[in-house]
Specification:
Rossmann fold, single chain, binds flavin-adenine dinucleotide, about 250 residues, 6 helices, binds FE2/S2 (inorganic) cluster, seven-stranded mixed sheet
Amino acid sequence: MNFSIILSKEVVAKNTVTLKFSFDKRVYAGQFAMVWTPGKGEIPISFSHTGDPKGITIKNYGDMSAPIVALNAGERIFFRGPYGNSFTKPKDGDYLLIGGGSGIASLAPMISKNAHGIISARSMEDLFFLDKFEKSKVIATTDDGSFGIKGNALDALRTLDLEKFQNIYVCGPEKMMKGIYDYIKPKNIAAEFSLERPMKCAIGICDSCSVNGIQICKTGPVFGMDSLRDFTEFGTTRLMLSGKRVNI
Ligand SMILES: Cc1cc2nc3c(=O)[nH]c(=O)nc-3n(C[C@H](O)[C@H](O)[C@H](O)COP(=O)(O)OP(=O)(O)OC[C@H]3O[C@@H](n4cnc5c(N)ncnc54)[C@H](O)[C@@H]3O)c2cc1C
Ligand code: FES
């Protein structure tokens, strides 16, 4: 377990903060840390900043994320990692990042002048990192229509000519990712998806993150189109941390 002193805290959206801290290990876009709160436990959180300092961007969803969101500059953050594989480095040319909810956090290290973006959220106050893209290259969608296109990431994707992108990178709620996967599958376009399944150990022991027998924490969380083809559980069912299987 590592700990670092939080250097800065920025509120980036409703109930969502970026915490920056020093950490001298190399981290790649798509990798995550297990962030620990004493007396509560650990949750997986992606590195939204992989340079120096490192950073995470986390939304307060509930019991485990709330105490991390409440941390302040000067306090200690406990974590282990980095874990998981990473997105492939974008080649020269344009590419597309699609982030739903807090999913844009794991894609953020890949935002550059060649990056186009679709960022989807429930409402305007939940959107973040739009300002990291060139204004003409990013589309926002909100479920309630309070900002950008009223609808979801797939509605925005349908308005774009996908031929111009070298690669598409996606992270967000699994139902959204499945919809995007089904849409681009017949178009034969390279795409990678980061699967955010509940995790306990992150080192291949507990099996809580398994999808069709593949441990997401070790083999993923990033998978290409070919791997996802074999995942019948992708976008359909998942294990809760209790071990109960539920529909997505
Ligand atoms: C590899 C990986 C990387 C992740 N990276 C990030 C990250 O960078 N930033 C971040 O904020 N979260 C990230 N998550 C999700 C994070 O681990 C969850 O937010 C966390 O497990 C929520 O725990 P909780 O106990 O606070 O909420 P819970 O008590 O587990 O959930 C409370 C409610 O919120 C819902 N909920 C929980 N998580 C999400 C979610 N991600 N999207 C929509 N609804 C949700 C639950 O279904 C439930 O209804 C990542 C998950 C994985 C597996
Ligand atoms: S989280 Fe334990 S095996 Fe993946």
